[in-house]
Write a structure and sequence with these properties.
The structure is a homodimer. Chain A is mainly alpha-helical. Chain A has four helices and no strands. Chain A has a single domain, classed as Monooxygenase. In chain A, helix 1 packs parallel to helix 4. The interface between A and B is large, with 36 and 36 residues.
């Protein structure tokens, strides 16, 4: 594994877990008032673009990473709509 | 510009503006209580990895995108520490 792959994969792993603490915090506090729905929308658009880019260049790590992030962001949108505070 | 470049650059542009609405919302409401500091930490680690990866492969768009995102995340950490709610 060369150093470039290392950073690419490390970046992918970190990206995948990045939003987990935020999802857990919202779940625990049942509050997502301070989160910006516009930012969540951009996050969905963002990971969808990277997901498409990954598919086009056949980069599985990029697709897996952004698939996981997409799932977490969709959960945050669902919580924000559900915990209407 | 082939389609791969399009998605790469589009992803970069969207990534750069993604957190702007969140920074503005925190600034307006002076509240960042619902944001997870752990997620902000992972975001910093995440963009630092992608910044390093971009530098290693000499990919300027990747470096610019993640430089902008890093600045915005650092602002959110500063606000979260400042607006102590």
């Amino acid at each position: 594994m060369n150093i470039q792959n290392f950073f690419g994969i490390a970046g992918g792993i970190v990206s995948s877990v990045t939003f987990l603490p935020q999802v857990i915090k919202i779940w625990k506090t049942k509050s997502a008032k301070d989160l910006s729905m516009v930012t969540l929308f951009f996050l969905i658009l963002n990971v969808s673009l990277w997901l498409t880019y990954g598919a086009l260049i056949g980069d599985l790590p990029l697709m897996i990473t952004n698939g996981i992030v997409l799932a977490m962001v969709l959960m945050m949108v669902y919580f924000k709509l559900t915990f209407k505070q």
